[in-house]
Amino acid sequence: MMKRKLMAAACAAGLLAVAGAMSVMAQSPTIFAGGAVSIEAGGPGVEKETQSELTKIWGTVLSVNDGSISIDNQSGNSSAGEVILHISDENTRILDAVNGYPVQLSDVKVGEVIYAYIGPAMTMSLPPQTTAEMIICQIPADYKAPDYITVKSMEKNADGSWTLTSTDETVYQIPADCTIIPYMTRQMVYLEGVEKGNQLLVWSDAENNGQKLVLFN
User: Fold this and answer.
1) pLDDT tens across 101-148, in order?
2) Tens digits of per-residue pLDDT, 79-108?
3) What is the C-alpha separation between 120 and 194, in angstroms, rounded?
4) Which of 68, 125, 194, 216 sits a CA distance of 20 to 30 A from 132?
5) What is the SS3 assignment for 78?
6) How far is 48 from 97, CA to CA, in rounded Å?
7) d(CA 56, CA 54)
8) DSSP state of 22
9) 3-class DSSP state for residue 17?
């Protein structure tokens, strides 16, 4: 009888230890590309914090491989130094900085500077790896590359111009006659149709005065 009681007590202690370990794992931080952490704690009434904002990084291309680009990240955002950017056929766009047209991965050149917009998750490997949602390449010298943004608000001003605010709180002044075109379609789009949640490429000058917009579906 005593032996059975001791065995039962040992089993109970083991189950409590496993449950405690699972609880700690459930609340372990996830490392994000932008340096933020998210703690996902289960249970009713407990908020779940997440980060979905894309992080913009840039740097010189070190190598171009089948399905990936390696860059020397000098942006000060995310991990410094070499970062491997995986290219997804379904989810990654590679665009020319001047005209916004698609560029083949094979046309990205070693030694050129590119901008990349990456999601929050990045591996802790060396070098770190992540998947790029947008690559802006073929940037001429002294040229301001377009910004890839998500719209927070688009407000019309009394003079007919617009104030565009991105989710990262960058504010652009958009002239009433600013060119706006859809990405790879022939549908007609207008400044009036830009709304919260839309994704845009925004070409602008040094004062963030809009020059051209490309609207993604």
Assistant:
1) 999 999 999 999 999 999 988 898 899 999 999 999 999 999 999 999
2) 899 999 999 999 999 999 999 999 999 999
3) 25
4) 194
5) coil
6) 37
7) 7
8) H
9) helix
